[in-house]
Amino acid sequence: MDSIMPLALDIKDLGKRHGKNWILRGLNFSVTAGSAMALLGANGSGKSSLLRMLCGLDPQSEGEVCWQQGQTTVDREALAGAISYCAPDQSLILDLTVEEHIAFHFKFRHPLPGTDESQTLSMAILEEKKDIRVRNLSSGMRQRLALSLAFSTQSLALFLDEPTSHLDAQGRAWYVDLMSNWTAGRTLVVSSNHNENEFPKGTERFTLR
What pLDDT does residue 97 have? Predict the structure, then answer.
């Protein structure tokens, strides 16, 4: 795939159910390539489930999600190597050190041009923790590591689920700076509990009731 052109999404009559209970149904909206979209809703509204369907991690129960890169349709199977995803409950490899984890990540994904492992370490503000096992980091430090890996990875789109979870005031300011300087023209989709600092000003919004 052309690594320059960001991802566009078209969502038609999308629905998700667990057993007999529908948690989402009849959703229709589009995300323009290179734009930002905020998925807003209270806890339990289904926004995390929606985000996971949009980035191909979970299948929908009905409807469709169409991913486009320019005029090319992107298959769901190809998405894993084309996007960045970060969620508060994202699994990190707890027995690796911070430095080992970053090196392991970039064995499978390419960093952004001009970025390397040391810059990702610096981005996460974990230089002094590089030899510490991930399990021994605070929840805020783990969130900074996960977000830094997502932003420093070459990708067509960033999918972030409540990205300031576990971050203190200083960490939230760090995230705003990261978002401002490292989105790099990629499509950005953020799931948020109406936290205005988790997505850029002027971002298009889709609210779940």
Answer: 98
